[in-house]
Q: What sequence folds into this?
């Protein structure tokens, strides 16, 4: 027992310091990006201004002139919000039916849906471009929304399914007794009870849509181009524009990182399909 | 059994959408992979439109199979995925155990730790390759320059000067170069996904059986054997899930590779396909089918591992 007591005395100081150290190392690149965004382009690469410099907001003020930021940000908001809503509209009824009225095939359908996530996007890259150009929807919001919806649908259904599964079936049965039809059950019972689960699913789907960087880059040129495309297009500033690039990057990820802080728990449930609690 | 129509009806849109999404483009890829199909060819203009008359059989597959670039891409895909998996799981377990204790500011530490996961991949890559890893202007360049300056200063110092004059000047590493660009990608993705592993392992650790642990302590079990025989087995399932999810995501890594070196010396399968798709659609499609096969091999292996636990 003495040994245990001794280690805990030592660890009383060592553990927090170690933990804080690791956390700060992991956060450092983000901190560095935010810090650089307040430097002028010239100061950003000078060693003498590493930490001490005159902060400036000019990079943020010039974001529109330098990068046309708001145009890309608007596209990101339009596509991510619409895709999230569309995914929920398609996903909620499906997950509802699977959770409350499972048939013998339900498990197989769920596994099959998950397996569509394993189809490498690159394998169908050219057919997608071909179809999009053939249908005249290349570089449109519609196309990006549809693709974002489809790539997130399996995960959203899985997440909703794990939430709905935890709702006692008796409640739904009671609703049926009271004469509710299916739509009534969803509106009166399911949505109020699973509101938290649906909200966090939506949040996570939104984050995934916002950060998506394969299809949004390959299927757009300018009209529907999102922030991923904007950043990707400025990949190599050769040190000339570190300040302004940091500002636009901070603006692109800031809101999402903050949103992410609020849905850590749901993230675990959602991404592990409820297998880790 | 009276009413199966409504549940079926509710599932139909999702199932149909995913079915179309899976079958139509994949069917086209399969078709393109068996025909000669290029976007630009002045001598054989008939090859520029997809048609059954340009049937090539397994020609595209043979062509791809015999290319060094193809094998390098497979090797590189596996190198990147396996390295990231290895690093994130090890770091994830260590950090999760570290943060699982209660200590002052634990909430803030968790928030700081999880943040990298929400950074969009494009920003992650641009940030790392320019502002951190750039050999001249990034932090790496500044740090190496600073160390060299300190060493140069110490050379003239009394006593220790002789020792430091033996030291060579440090050279910064260029992570855009052929040999090193894969390491830059591994580094930045590990930075982004370690928080994910930490988060999942941490959640799982909270459900660890504390009584069992106390019993082990009373039996005189040390820290290491507690970790080895209680914590690690408890984490087996979350580790399997982290491996599966990350394998799905990292096999299709694209933005990071594009941004770091435009694929220079660092092509993985998705990147190779993207490049071929600029002109030789037949070969790109055949490579795509190979990528599907590879993903399926990985998927079968992984689903065996975790599939049962998912359904309880």
A:
């Amino acid at each position: 027992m003495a040994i245990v007591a001794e280690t805990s005395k030592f660890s009383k100081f060592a553990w927090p310091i170690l933990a804080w150290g690791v956390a700060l190392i992991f956060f450092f690149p983000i901190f560095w990006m935010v810090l650089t965004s307040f430097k002028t382009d010239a100061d950003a690469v000078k060693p003498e201004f590493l930490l001490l410099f005159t902060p400036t907001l000019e990079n943020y003020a010039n974001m529109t002139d330098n990068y046309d930021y708001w145009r890309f940000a608007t596209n990101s908001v339009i596509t991510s919000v619409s895709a999230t809503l569309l995914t929920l509209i398609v996903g909620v009824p499906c997950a509802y039916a699977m959770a409350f009225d499972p048939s013998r095939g339900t498990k197989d359908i769920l596994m099959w849906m998950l397996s569509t996530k394993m189809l490498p996007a690159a394998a169908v890259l050219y057919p997608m471009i071909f179809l999009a150009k053939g249908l005249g929807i290349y570089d449109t919001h519609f196309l990006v929304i549809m693709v974002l919806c489809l790539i997130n649908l399996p995960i959203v259904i899985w997440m909703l399914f794990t939430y709905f599964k935890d709702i006692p079936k008796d409640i739904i049965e009671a609703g049926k007794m009271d004469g509710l039809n299916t739509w009534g059950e969803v509106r009166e019972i399911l949505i109020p009870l699973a509101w938290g689960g649906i909200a966090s699913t939506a949040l996570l789907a939104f984050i995934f849509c916002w950060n998506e960087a394969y299809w949004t880059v390959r299927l757009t040129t300018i009209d529907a181009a999102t922030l991923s495309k904007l950043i990707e297009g400025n990949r190599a500033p050769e040190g000339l524009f570190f300040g302004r690039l940091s500002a636009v990057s901070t603006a692109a990820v800031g809101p999402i990182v903050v949103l992410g802080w609020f849905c850590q728990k749901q993230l675990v449930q959602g991404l592990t399909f409820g297998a880790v609690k | 059994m009276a009413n199966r129509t409504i549940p079926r009806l509710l599932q139909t849109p999702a199932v149909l959408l995913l079915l179309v999404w899976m079958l139509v483009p994949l069917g086209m890829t399969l078709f393109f992979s068996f025909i000669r199909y290029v976007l630009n060819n002045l001598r054989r203009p008939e090859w520029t439109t997809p048609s059954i008359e340009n049937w090539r059989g397994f020609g595209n597959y043979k062509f791809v199979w015999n290319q060094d670039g193809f094998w390098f891409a497979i090797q590189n895909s596996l190198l990147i995925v396996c390295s990231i998996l290895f690093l994130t799981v090890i770091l994830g377990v260590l950090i999760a155990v570290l943060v699982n204790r209660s200590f002052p500011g634990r909430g803030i530490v968790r928030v700081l730790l999880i943040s990298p996961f929400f950074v969009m991949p494009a920003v992650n890559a641009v940030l790392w390759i320019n502002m951190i890893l750039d050999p001249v202007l990034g932090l790496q360049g500044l740090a190496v320059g600073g160390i060299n300056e300190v060493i140069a200063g110490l050379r003239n110092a009394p006593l220790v000067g002789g020792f430091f004059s033996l030291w060579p000047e440090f050279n910064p590493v260029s992570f855009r170069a052929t040999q090193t660009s894969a390491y830059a990608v591994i580094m930045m993705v590990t930075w982004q996904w370690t928080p994910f592993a930490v988060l999942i392992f941490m959640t799982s650790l909270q459900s660890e059986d504390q009584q069992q642990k106390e019993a082990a302590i009373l039996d005189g079990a040390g820290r290491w054997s507690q970790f080895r025989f209680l914590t690690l087995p408890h984490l087996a399932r979350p580790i399997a899930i982290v491996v599966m999810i990350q394998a799905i995501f990292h096999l299709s890594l694209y933005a990071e590779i594009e941004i770091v070196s435009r694929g220079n010396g660092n092509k993985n399968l998705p990147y190779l396909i993207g490049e071929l798709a600029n002109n030789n659609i037949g070969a790109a499609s055949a490579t795509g089918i190979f990528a599907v096969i590879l993903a399926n091999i990985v998927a079968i292996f992984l689903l065996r591992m975790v599939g049962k636990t998912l359904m309880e």
